Amino acid sequence: MAAFLNIVIVGLLLGGIYGLVSMGLNLIFGVVRIVNFAQGELVMLGMYGAYLSWFLLGLDPYVSALVVVPCLFVLGVIIQRFVLQPLQNEPFMQIFATFGLLILFQNAVLAITRGTGYSVHSELSRIVISVGDINVNLSRLIVLATVIVVAIGANWFLHSTMYGKAVRAVTQDRRSARLMGINVELAFMLTFGVGAALAGLAGVLLAPIYTLSPQIGGNFILAAFAVVVLGGLGSVWGAFFGGFIIGLIEAFAGYYLSPELKHAIWFLVFIAVLIVRPGGLFGIAGAEEVGLREQD
Amino acid sequence: MNKTDIQAMPAGLAGAGAGGTARPKVTTFATELGRIAAIGLFFAVCLFLFRSDPFILNMMAYTFLFAALSTSWNIIGGFGGQFSLGHGVFFAIGAYTTANLYFHWQVSPWLSLIPGMILASIVAVAVSWPTFRLKGPFFAIATLALNEVAFVLATYFDSVTGGPRGMLLPFKAGLVNMVFTSRLPYAIIMVGFLLISLVVAAYVLRGRLGYYLQAVHLDEDAARAAGIDVLKVKLTGMAISAALTGIGGALFAMYLRFVDPPTVLNIQDIGVKFLLIALIGGVGTLYGPLLGALLIIPLESYLRATLGGTIPGINLLILGGLLVLFALFMRRGIFGALQGAWERYRGARS
């Protein structure tokens, strides 16, 4: 029973990480309708940002979020404006472009760091909370709390503010939204910026947990894809619950089958969901079947 | 028909719509065979000229191999518009099949090309069946995940694959073993593979299947309405593409005489490179992938040789940048740009 409970806790904490990483990806997909293959690399940049702030300014990783998150917001706006906006009606070229960014960012960091692994320490990450037999690292708990706050915040923002309603209008019908006086390009730029900022936030919060490497984005992007396909592309709650489902699957598969096979299990779940319920559990029905509808 | 539609069209059909003045220029399979023979002759002369320079021969072997692999990817990815990021899996299947048969039973790699091809096709059809209902980026995600799963499985089942340590194939020189002391025979084999892939691609492109694939690429619903069995066409294209990719994997394994998951299932160095080369040369054109490989592989080996020691990842850094730039400014690749320039020149003269 203790083992079972432990696996559930591990799964939920892992789910928090995956959910947080998926939030930005899902927001970008839901609004801009672009599948950003470089999202994992934005998380990676966030992690290195935390390292850099610690190295240069001596900031604790949790404080460095104040610097890193705005930087990634700006990066996201630049990517959307100069790379993706010209490709708005070119879904195939979007795949090439975002994959090109993935390779570019990853190898730029590799070239700069020469492949040295870094780790970032925070006073907070040394604290371990013990309840009975279960030990939980505080840094993972912070991730879990953050993903809950982000999910609630995103939901509130999209449904209760004028700007959020404008974003949802753009999501539903670009042309009508434009006729209603919404600046669609600006909405896309800001959304992509927020999506990138969320990736940066995830990176900062994960920096004390993982050893930094240029390839680390690859671990997150596949998990994030599994999460969003499972939860439903474009749904905030989909990413939230999808993260926990994938986290629990990974924890159980890792314990009862083999830690090496967890990715294979994801893929089976991924394929099964696509066959049984192609829209995901909370998603926009049929988005992956009809492809991304061209709108202008 | 608006502007974006023309850009998205496979180049074989693009002539008909662009400008209106250009004649629809469709060559026959026989014409293409002649061109491919000329290409073969040209490369034969190149090989003869550089027959004693191992560095150049090595580069040419890789160039021809990747040209052939990108041409194979182009059959389903370019003609059919199914942007697979998972062709590394079929490549790995070819590599591991040949490596195992050679390692354990001393089967000649020439013979084991056939089971490698068949196995790659079977796996391709089996995994494409569910994933072909996905479109565009979703198909790309699913195939990316497939590559990752193959990596995990290849590392896990070490009785078949040697696991993370990989398989080192014994050096027993001889034509039967496809192991040679010089690099020249390898380069000749790669040219042969390139010519075979070009002939197959030309045959597909200029045959019924090619037109079906292009129709599916342009508009799947319209193709279905016109009576095309879309799933069957996609699966056939994928099976042919995967079979050729399997051959490429086998040749790669025999050339390196070493197979391990980080080499054959590397998403950036193998899986994505096929479509990167195709994009830079010209997606959906017959000779685009060849052109792309002739540019990219020598550039990459040059960068790796000169700067790779001091700046790791520099070759991929530049390739990533090129990928973004081509997606933004040269969507039809070099071949498409040259074709456009030629048509404008002809248009200005007439």
From TrEMBL, chain A:
<keyword id="KW-0472">Membrane</keyword>
<feature type="transmembrane region" description="Helical">
    <location>
        <begin position="96"/>
        <end position="118"/>
    </location>
</feature>
<keyword id="KW-0812">Transmembrane</keyword>
<keyword id="KW-0813">Transport</keyword>
<comment type="similarity">
    <text>Belongs to the binding-protein-dependent transport system permease family. LivHM subfamily.</text>
</comment>
<protein>
    <submittedName>
        <fullName>Branched-chain amino acid ABC transporter permease</fullName>
    </submittedName>
</protein>
<keyword id="KW-1003">Cell membrane</keyword>
<feature type="transmembrane region" description="Helical">
    <location>
        <begin position="6"/>
        <end position="29"/>
    </location>
</feature>
<feature type="transmembrane region" description="Helical">
    <location>
        <begin position="138"/>
        <end position="158"/>
    </location>
</feature>
<dbReference type="InterPro" id="IPR052157">
    <property type="entry name" value="BCAA_transport_permease"/>
</dbReference>
<feature type="transmembrane region" description="Helical">
    <location>
        <begin position="41"/>
        <end position="57"/>
    </location>
</feature>
<dbReference type="GO" id="GO:0006865">
    <property type="term" value="P:amino acid transport"/>
</dbReference>
<keyword id="KW-1133">Transmembrane helix</keyword>
<dbReference type="InterPro" id="IPR001851">
    <property type="entry name" value="ABC_transp_permease"/>
</dbReference>
<dbReference type="GO" id="GO:0005886">
    <property type="term" value="C:plasma membrane"/>
</dbReference>
<dbReference type="GO" id="GO:0022857">
    <property type="term" value="F:transmembrane transporter activity"/>
</dbReference>
<feature type="transmembrane region" description="Helical">
    <location>
        <begin position="63"/>
        <end position="84"/>
    </location>
</feature>
<feature type="transmembrane region" description="Helical">
    <location>
        <begin position="216"/>
        <end position="233"/>
    </location>
</feature>
<feature type="transmembrane region" description="Helical">
    <location>
        <begin position="179"/>
        <end position="210"/>
    </location>
</feature>
<dbReference type="Pfam" id="PF02653">
    <property type="entry name" value="BPD_transp_2"/>
</dbReference>
<feature type="transmembrane region" description="Helical">
    <location>
        <begin position="264"/>
        <end position="287"/>
    </location>
</feature>
<keyword id="KW-0029">Amino-acid transport</keyword>
